[in-house]
Write a structure and sequence with these properties.
Length: 400
């Protein structure tokens, strides 16, 4: 029997970073899945996927962030984890759900507050011909090492910029920020710099979305603090804000550690928490779509970036009618909807739910499914899913 006091102490010192939504995890759903993007993205090899828990394997006690009994899916070594968040943003199906104090609601609220603060500075203090005030994201190391007098009100401080995705950037812009900076000053000398290797692609994808929606905001990766620096008359406030940031972070971490320790002890004792709300999958995505809808949709027929969703089509001539693509879809973006005329099967495709994970195309043995960047704005925001009729079940020669 594990020492419950030791477990509680370890969780208090190294609280869990994520929970696993097993219904969305590809290795959990399909023993044949080779998905290991979370482990591949981890800069410190703190994640294992698909390893058993025999005597020769890593001890189960080391993997507390993802509570599992079976041999599949990911487990996170809490002691090795550096809380960079890269596994969460790398997961193609949003199966890893961040927990407090870095849960989606907290980060979205912080992004909105920083964007609103930048917008307020622009409206109230800056002359009309001045460059727009900037909001941004910085890492804890930048704050800790005082790379400059960072304005705490206009920035979101994270353990690592790998937590940032398009949803957080767009949310900040919609809150009022006209310039958004991703401060990478400490990254060059950081031992975990590999965690932010995809940051340029994230910034480019966010900028493309902002441009398509004609939102007046520019995203940039900067290596100097000038864009998010506090003004001379904000010096003292900046120091207080820094201390406040770390004070709030410590408080939130302690609360999260207490909850995590309690949940772990309950699990070991065979009890289940009755009222603990589970994190919501796709929380950031739904906020992103809400922000874009509120901003006003582009002209009908405009093709949206594949970052938002692809068009999924099925070639009826190649389709065997097995509908495994719908059965294995982890987000139910592609799902069975009943029978159609002539014994055919009716599928539905809900673009808003699609994460472009590729499960449908990987499942199909007949190469009958395509995912292309041809989805229009009206299709993405349609109230009803698109109907797809596939043939009655038949035997075809495999194309794979």
């Amino acid at each position: 029997m594990p020492n419950l006091i030791d477990i509680a102490q370890r969780l208090a010192e190294r609280p869990a970073v994520a929970l696993l939504h097993e219904e969305r995890c590809l290795p959990e759903r399909d023993l044949g899945s080779t998905c290991a993007r979370c482990a591949e993205a981890c800069p410190v090899a703190a994640i294992v996927v698909g390893a058993g828990r025999g005597e020769d394997d890593a001890p189960a006690a080391a993997y507390g962030s993802v509570t599992k009994d079976g041999p599949t899916g990911p487990r996170i070594d809490d002691d090795a984890c550096v809380r960079c968040g890269r596994c969460i943003t790398a997961c193609p199906t949003a199966a890893l759900l961040a927990v407090a104090p870095l849960d989606d609601d907290t980060l979205l609220n912080a992004s909105a507050a920083a964007g609103a603060a930048a917008g307020a500075v622009q409206q109230e203090e800056a002359p009309e011909d001045a460059e727009p005030s900037c909001a941004g994201f910085v890492c804890e190391r930048a704050v800790r090492e005082r790379v400059g007098r960072i304005d705490a009100e206009r920035t979101v401080t994270l353990p690592c910029l790998a937590w940032v995705d398009e949803a957080l950037i767009v949310h900040m812009a919609c809150a009022g920020a006209q310039r958004i900076a991703l401060l990478t000053a400490p990254c060059a000398s950081c031992a975990h710099a590999a965690a932010v290797s995809a940051l340029p692609q994230t910034a480019d994808a966010a900028q493309r979305i902002l441009d398509m929606w004609q939102l007046d905001a520019a995203v940039s990766i900067v290596d100097a603090v000038d864009d998010v620096a506090a003004s001379d008359d904000e010096d003292a406030a900046g120091e207080v804000s820094r201390r406040g940031l770390f004070s709030q972070a410590r408080s939130a971490l302690m609360e999260a550690a207490t909850d995590a320790a309690s949940a772990q002890i309950d699990a070991l004792a065979g009890r289940r928490a009755a009222d603990a709300p589970a994190p919501e999958p796709d929380r950031r995505r739904w906020q992103l779509l809400d922000d874009l809808h509120d901003a006003g949709l582009p002209a009908d027929g405009t093709v949206v970036p594949r970052t938002l969703a692809p068009r999924v089509d099925i070639d009826a001539e190649r389709c065997s009618g097995c509908a495994l693509c719908a059965g294995f879809c982890p987000t139910q973006a592609l799902r069975k909807a009943g029978k159609a005329d002539g014994g055919r099967t009716l599928l539905e495709f809900d673009a808003a739910l699609c994460r472009d994970c590729g499960t449908c195309t990987d499942t199909c043995r007949y190469v009958a499914i395509s995912r292309e960047e041809t989805l229009t704005v009206s299709e993405l925001f349609a109230l009803e899913p698109r109907a797809i009729r596939i043939p009655k079940r038949r035997v075809l020669p495999s194309r794979r």
